[in-house]
Write a structure and sequence with these properties.
The protein has about 525 residues and is mainly α. The chain folds into two domains: about 200 residues, no CATH class; about 325 residues, no CATH class. The protein contains 21 helices and no strands. The protein is globular and about 75 Å long.
């Protein structure tokens, strides 16, 4: 079931009604039933993968907790009973080796399913070539949201192993954490210790909270249907028929592709977070106005935040403190000094993180190069940070200079555009071809009506530009600390409801629907 369907809207309101009328203690099970019903639309084969992931996380989590012992409680015992419980915990023998073996088994199963879904077709082709075209064929399944619930399950097992979280003893509650319907399609990737308590406790109806949540969901529909799907028509026309175009047409389409992806992905996040907020459950923010970033590193602290946090917690930090990376650091310290050692200890984990980030998005060579492209820029910027700092001081380029900040933002936007070009065409050969043709000098196509022959007309272009300006203005206000929804809630009731109705009607009137659009899917559902 897609977010952008009337079926989904009816489903949410029906589930919300049921959720708020049943007793508090069973509301988590209403969410579980609703989440399974939502996911069941993907098919029973997808459900099997989801069930296997949940069963793996549940069984391995209990075994890890059993071998590692109770999670230390940093609170001071309030009575004798709690003190005795603490003493009992201390007497447990921590069998870390066995726990690690269970963790490895769990990771192999979870990542094995993910890798199979990602490269199953490639394996099939390779076997067929090895066997002279007589390979066994099978239907490769790419389960809906597998990247997201796999990472959620892996994070849960790692936290239990590190004693940062307690193992969930109720299998249904763990299943709910893994398949909670607003976040299973495109994230955000949740942490069990943050999300699970909210899912399990049940929430009372709160009129203001429900209104705020639905307002944010409408904002997400606006981004997706009015902007992303409108730009998608033009972008698909240009890049699907790239041999017919050249020069500034590619530049125009590439800028449109950047905004299309942003409106698509952030729109999905607004719908997910808004619907979840209406139920009283706060999901982690996944976007924080990334195009205001002044560097590549800051951009990725603002874009797909939960993915970056996951890689930082479960890949970067363990690697940077591992014995072999410490040995690399010692080698460079002995032969090149502290700066060389610091750069080495930073570079190795960053390189691994960005290689894996590229593979998470796709298994083709274009995504590997994309990952190395971003990793290389961030690593180089890290190395050169002291040099840049001294140079900026000499030139008087301080962070409070508005024009310099805008230059850095424009530079970051350009870096992102190049990265988008690496993966958008579908293969590196096409990306190289377009990259050469994009420098063809033909600026007149921007003014002779050619732009309105790319699958859309001037009315579509005007709507897209106005909608983007609205998003830009709202983003500026938010960047300056203005809380839009709280401000609107203080308006007189008549004007407030006129605004609400106008927002909904704008989505219904100006949204793109039907066979010429991609309203049935979100871009990041493919990852």
């Amino acid at each position: 079931m897609s977010f952008v369907t009337y079926e989904f809207i009816g489903f949410v309101f029906a589930l919300m009604l049921l959720y708020f009328i049943v007793p508090l203690k069973v509301r988590c099970y209403v969410l579980l039933a609703g989440s399974l019903a939502f996911y069941q639309g993907a098919g029973w084969k997808d459900m099997l993968f989801l069930g296997a992931a949940a069963a793996t996380a549940y069984i391995c989590g209990l075994l890890i907790a059993m071998f590692r012992g109770p999670v230390p409680d940093r609170r001071r015992p309030k009575d004798t009973g709690e003190a005795e419980a603490a003493d009992s915990g201390r007497s447990h023998k921590d069998q870390k080796g066995k726990a690690l073996a269970v963790l490895i088994v769990g990771l192999l199963i979870l990542f094995g399913m993910l890798v199979y879904s990602k490269i199953g077709t490639r394996i099939q082709i390779a076997l067929s070539q090895i066997l002279g075209g007589k390979g066994i064929t099978w239907a490769v399944i790419v389960p809906l949201g597998i990247s997201y619930y796999t990472f959620a399950s892996v994070g849960y097992l790692a936290d239990v192993y590190w004693k940062k979280d307690r193992a969930e003893k109720n299998p249904l509650k763990l299943l709910l954490y893994i398949c909670y319907f607003p976040q299973i399609l495109q994230g955000p990737i949740p942490k069990h210790k943050t999300l699970a308590p909210q899912l399990n406790e049940g929430h009372r109806f709160d009129y203001e909270r429900v209104c705020f949540g639905l307002q944010r969901a409408v904002w997400g529909f606006f981004k997706k249907l009015v902007i992303a799907d409108r730009l998608s028509i033009m972008v698909r026309e240009v890049f699907d028929h790239y041999l017919n175009y050249t020069g500034f047409i590619f530049l125009f389409a590439l800028v449109g592709a950047v905004f299309q992806l942003y409106a698509d992905f952030s729109g999905c996040m607004d719908i997910a977070l808004g619907v979840s907020e209406a139920f009283g459950i706060k999901l982690d923010e996944n976007f924080r106005r990334p195009f205001f970033a002044t560097s590549a590193a800051e951009f990725w602290r603002r874009w797909h935040i939960s993915l970056g946090t996951w890689f930082k917690d479960y890949v970067y930090m363990p690697l940077s403190t591992s014995g072999w990376v410490m040995k690399i650091g010692k080698f460079f310290r002995d032969h090149g000094g502290r700066t060389a050692a610091r750069n080495a200890v930073t570079t190795v984990p960053l390189l691994v993180v960005w290689l894996l980030t590229g593979l998470w998005h796709g298994t083709g060579a274009d995504y590997v190069v994309w990952g190395l492209y971003w990793g290389g820029i961030i690593i180089f910027s890290t190395w050169m940070a002291p040099v840049y700092r001294k140079l900026n001081q000499r030139l008087g380029l301080t962070n409070d200079l508005h024009w310099w900040k805008e230059v850095r933002r424009f530079r970051t936007f350009g870096i992102y555009m190049v990265g988008r070009l690496l993966t958008l065409p579908g293969n590196l050969a096409t990306s190289r071809w377009i990259g050469r043709k994009i420098f063809t000098w033909n600026p007149w196509v921007l003014f002779d009506g050619t732009l309105f022959q790319l699958g859309w007309d001037y009315k579509d272009a005007v709507v897209a530009i106005i909608a983007l300006l609205i998003v830009w203005r709202v983003s500026v206000l938010q960047e300056n600390g203005v809380h839009i929804r709280q401000s609107v809630s203080k308006w007189p009731v008549v004007f407030r409801w006129l605004f609400y109705c106008g927002a909904i009607l704008s989505v219904m009137i100006f949204g793109i629907y039907g066979s010429g659009s991609s309203a049935s899917t979100f871009v990041y559902m493919n990852f």
